[in-house]
Amino acid sequence: MCVAAFNAAIVPVAREPILIAGGGIGGLCAAIGLQAKGRQVVVLERREELREVGAGLTLFPNALAALDRLGVGAAVRALSVPVGDGGVRSPSGRWLLRQSADRVTASLGEPVVCVHRAELLSVLAKAADRSDVRLGAEVAAYRQDDRGVTVETSDGETLEGGALVGADGVHSVVARTMHPGMSSAYTGCTAWRAITDLPSSLASGHLGFETWGVGGAFGIVPVGEQRVYWFATANRPEAERAVGREYDEVLRRFGAWHEPIGAVLEATDPTGIIRQDMYDRAPLSSWTAGRVCVLGDAAHPMRPNLGQGACQAIEDSVALSDCVGTFDNVIDALRAYEQRRRRSANRVAALSRSAGRVVQLRRPLACHIRNTALRMIPSSLLISRIRSIAASPEV
Ligand SMILES: Cc1cc2nc3c(=O)[nH]c(=O)nc-3n(C[C@H](O)[C@H](O)[C@H](O)COP(=O)(O)OP(=O)(O)OC[C@H]3O[C@@H](n4cnc5c(N)ncnc54)[C@H](O)[C@@H]3O)c2cc1C
To answer: 13 falls in which pLDDT band (50, 70, 90)?
Structure first.
């Protein structure tokens, strides 16, 4: 046997780089974690810039603890605002359920916080500085053999690596290739979001609440002293867009609800509103196939009603990095990652789905029953449910 042929036969399993499809919260956190384990990482992001929508994001202590493990917890906390007392109200303003921030904090280990998504992404992008982040690189397909993974981008580029992490969101190409029958389903619910700078007459301190109506909801969370993040949801057909401005549509639907909703909408820049339809899908039967795995929304799309989608993506990325750092063989590492995360993330996704259905109930009688039941829920029960999902692992 010639030496070259012999060498080819015993070439060690290709280890580097690890390719990541998607430079969102999940993909960048995975890059930070993997580079800290000494791995070479290439992030392929289809957008031309690393960008997040102009909205807020609540982060629970489970996510903050995971961000600590990635070394960025302090930087993210420095940008964020603790979520204060709050609860759920009816459109008339009546409180259906109240929650004390101090009790939530005592139960979860630290305060729940809200951060501007774009600011979070810039902290993550900065921390991922040892990774090779390629923008305008859309993953179109991949194949693998026993030596590595080959990824093709939409503009015909080919990249090779030792493994591929699909962090490419709810409509993931990587998940769809792994599970050819997979499809994401529209939840029947659309969401509008914006960040609003408040006039001096309105202080953000006491503005945290969610208001549930019939087939729609409106929520406000402070993201600064004079700045709030608000979101509104409604049961609408897929891909529907307002005939005029989305702002007018939101105003029409929610402007007459209790104050300060009208005042916050009044202060909102009509051009700064984002509308996004929400998708879900049945749990995947597996998250890994050989050298390929999925994480974040690609693995477990999550309705936003428990504020856990990004939190779980961050937890996934820490588990993945731990497993890659522990196992010599990347295939074993990906399997261990799935073992560690799939069940618990799917549980949170299922709970989020149920919560979403309750919030979006469309029949007035069902909403009346829901609201009556809500008033009877002991706050201790609610807190123990939140704790089972979102506590810091230290409590
Ligand atoms: C209205 C709303 C409110 C929410 N509120 C919260 C909250 O308060 N707290 C919380 O924890 N979660 C919340 N979520 C959920 C959270 O936004 C998501 O779970 C989180 O963004 C998932 O991150 P990800 O990185 O997995 O996916 P994404 O954020 O979807 O990122 C995927 C990235 O991959 C890129 N990409 C896609 N396809 C390709 C491809 N083929 N090739 C290369 N790149 C590709 C995309 O451009 C994107 O940058 C909310 C969601 C919604 C809709």
So the answer is: very low
Check pLDDT > 70 for residue 12. no
**Inside any domain, residue 299:** yes
What CATH number does the domain containing 75 carry?
3.50.50.60
Q: Which residues pair with 274 in a beta bridge?
A: 193
Contacts of 73 (CB under 8 A, 6+ apart): 64, 65, 67
What is the mean predicted confidence (pLDDT) over 40-61?
94
Q: Is residue 384 part of a domain?
A: no
pLDDT per position as a tens digit, 91-140? 999 999 999 999 999 999 999 999 999 999 999 999 999 999 999 999 99
Q: Residues lining ligand 1, judged by CB closer than 6 Å? A: 21-27, 44-47, 57-58, 138-139, 167-169, 173, 191, 193, 231, 276, 278, 296-298, 302, 304, 307-311, 313
CB count in 10 Å sphere of residue 225: 10
| Residue 243 placed within a domain | no
State which ligand 1 atom lies nearest to the alpha carbon of 174. Answer: 41
> Does residue 41 fall inside a structural domain?
yes
- Give the mutation target among 32, 57, 138, 221 for probing the ligand 1 site: most ligand atoms within 8 A of CB: 57
| Ligand 1 geometric centre to CA of 299 (Å) | 11
Domains held by the chain: number: 1
Mutation choice for ligand 1 from 297, 348, 359, CB with most ligand atoms inside 8 A: 297
- pLDDT tens column, 348-372: 999 999 999 999 999 999 999 999 9
3-state secondary structure of 133: strand
Dmax (CA) of the chain: 84
To test the pocket of ligand 1, the residue of 29, 42, 46, 142 to mutate (highest count of ligand atoms within 8 Å of its CB) is 46
State residue 176's pLDDT score: 97
Domain coverage including residue 35: 12-82+113-185+280-358
CA 312 to ligand 1: nearest atom: 11
Indicate whether this model's pTM tops 0.85: yes
Q: How far is the CA of 81 from the centre of ligand 1 (A)?
A: 21
Q: Which helix (H) or strand (E) holds 377?
A: none
Protein residue closest via CA to atom 39 of ligand 1: 168
* pLDDT at residue number 261: 96
Q: How far is Cα 44 from Cα 151, in angstroms, rounded to an integer?
A: 10
Structure tokens at 365: 């009688």
Query: Beta strand 139-144 with 56-59: parallel, antiparallel or unpaired?
Result: unpaired
